[in-house]
User: Fold this.
Amino acid sequence: MTLFLARSSRLGLLLLMTLAGCAPLGGLFGWSSPEIVARVATPDGTPVAGAIVVANWNIEGPWNGASLGQLAIAEVVTDQNGTFRIPAWGPRSIPKGHIRIDEPTVRIFKPGFMPLIIKNYEGDPMKAADYSIAFRLQNQTIELTPFKGSLIEYESKLNNLLNSLNVLLRGGGGG
Assistant:
């Protein structure tokens, strides 16, 4: 009986060490996201049809915060009512790292409008996300403002979006 308890205790300790950080929890349980649904409209409430929406969930390294790549990337277009739907996904495991609470990063663009980059959290982004990652603007209207200004000013705004997408596509963070 004593031998069984000793062996059982060692197995329990091994399991506890695994859950305590020797193996990433995301690798054991998997990350997921429910469907994301929101509406894009102008400040006066007019739906913005045909806007491109890109969402990504960045994997952050366990020790230094460097990006380890993307857990998921989705691209959709708003419908005639300005609504977009990003399909649910998961569970997906990752061998190391975690997803921060400010993921996903959502980018919305349509020619003639100010590009928009939305982080998912308005607090401390360094916290790890729950394993089921909910979008903070779920079922809400997101305002996309028509651009007013010179082409030089518009180019500057588009460069911010381009830089954010380049970071995403080159394996960097969400932007």
About this structure: The CA atoms of residues 17 and 23 lie 8 Å apart. The helical segments are 2-22, 25-29, 151-169. The domain at 31-169 is CATH 2.60.40.10 (Immunoglobulin-like).
